[in-house]
Amino acid sequence: MTNKENSTNRVNIQTLLYVLWRRVFWIIGIGIATALVFALVTKFLVTPVYSSTAKFYVNNNTEKGSTTISSQDIYASQSLAETAIVIIKNNNELMQRVISSSSVECSVEELKEMITATSLSSTEAFAIKVSNTSPEDALSLADAFRTVVPEMIPEVIQGGDVSTFDVPEKAVNPDSPNLFINTLIGGFVGAIVSFLIFFLSEALDNTIYEEADIKGKFDYPIIGLIPTISVEADEERGKKSAKSKKKDRQNRKETEAAK
User: Fold this and answer.
1) Around Cβ 96, how many Cβ atoms within 10 Å?
2) 59 pLDDT higher than 90
3) What's the pLDDT band for 42 if we cut at 50, 70, 90?
4) Of 16, 165, 226, 251, which residue is least crowded by CB atoms under 10 Å?
5) Cis peptide before 150, with omega less than 30 degrees from 0?
6) Mean pLDDT of the 191-206 span
7) Is 122 left (phi over 0), alpha (psi -120 to 50) or beta?
8) CA 114, CA 134: separation in Å to the nearest integer?
């Protein structure tokens, strides 16, 4: 790496540290302001979404009175759980029956957008999560799934048994948006953006303010310095000089008169 590149890197680091030191209160203030804006937008403008979840268990062994489960039965139940999830997501008749069993008015396509069906840790269990802007509607639909799924899935698969093992509950707190996370993101974005603006304005400023700017930016030898003389200071000195001369003339006249 050449001396010029070293000098450039050094100047960039010095500029970065200089901006941090000089603009730290501005950066913190802007970060707090944007965090507050994000918090207000999240609180008052973003619609919260609530969810309720119905959980199911698939059993491949349908023999009544049987107390033994083989590894083959477990593997088959896991496969049936994955199959049940695919059926639930794509069976319009099941979706329509869920809507009819609930107190919610919506279309089949709208209901499909509300649900998320996933297996639980690759086991024989799976869950259907219903998300809605109303916690009551989310609970009503989840309860409808809890009733309809154990009835319809065995009819479609024609083997195995589906039962519920957890009752859906009404959500108290929304799943989204997260006020705390959004506030942190707002503060971070505001601080970073303000710092970049200050840094770029400082780094792109080629104005020469002092001798160090020439050495740091251009690496040229310094021949001499031209002092800065303001017009106001020059006028003030002229006035003082005129007053001093006038006073001297008066003093000389007084001295001559005394003689």
Assistant:
1) 14
2) no
3) very high
4) 226
5) no
6) 82
7) left
8) 12
Q: Are 53 and 171 in contact (CB under 8 A)?
A: no
Residue 216 and residue 11 in contact, taking contact as beta carbons nearer than 8 Å: yes
Question: Is the Cβ–Cβ distance between 166 and 55 less than 8 Å?
Answer: yes
Residue the block writes with tokens 């006073």: 247
Structure tokens at 5: 């590149």
What is the C-alpha separation between 84 and 115, in angstroms, rounded?
Answer: 14
Query: Which residues lie across from 52 on neighbouring strands?
Result: 130
Give the Cα separation of 29 and 194 in Å (integer): 10
What order of strands is seen across the sheet that includes strand 161-166? 115-119, 125-132, 50-59, 161-166
CA angle, corner 250, sides to 249 and 256, nearest 5?
90
More confident site: 213 or 111:
111
Distance from C-alpha of 79 to C-alpha of 26, rounded to nearest angstrom: 59
Question: What are 36's two structure tokens?
Answer: 């507050």
* Strands, E assignment, 81-160: 115-119, 125-132
The neighbour count for residue 194, using CB atoms within 10 Å, is: 19
Pair type for strands 161-166 and 125-132 = unpaired
The 10s digit of each residue's pLDDT in 85-98 is 999 999 999 999 99
Integer Cα distance of 55 and 117 in angstroms: 10
Q: Are strands 115-119 and 161-166 parallel, antiparallel or unpaired?
A: unpaired
Residues 132 and 51: beta-carbon distance below 8 Å: yes
**76 to 22, 67, 71, 160: CA distances (angstroms):** 67, 17, 9, 9
* pLDDT computed for residue 179 by the predictor: 92
